[in-house]
Amino acid sequence: MSKEFYIGKSLVGGKNPCFVIAEIGSNHNNDYDMALRLIDKAAEAGVDAVKFQTFRASSHYSKNTPNFEYLKDSDTYKLIESLEINRDWHLPLKEYCDSVG
Length: 101
Fold this sequence. Notes:
single chain
């Protein structure tokens, strides 16, 4: 049985068109303007939605986490911490997404 449901104003499931979500994740590099540019690129590509990752390094990693082999000269914890999204960005990013469609 195929169920239909709404994501925002889009009906998905059943015989409806595929709903495409662009994974922005933490590729904004903690730069708000970069986050906006990534949203713009996703909109230009015609996606239906974008997804950011919201996390706190302290919830997932120890400050003593060993460094990744391929990033020997980097502190893993500090690297992950630098990719956290500022929670104050949530509403403005959502509003920006709404404005670009």
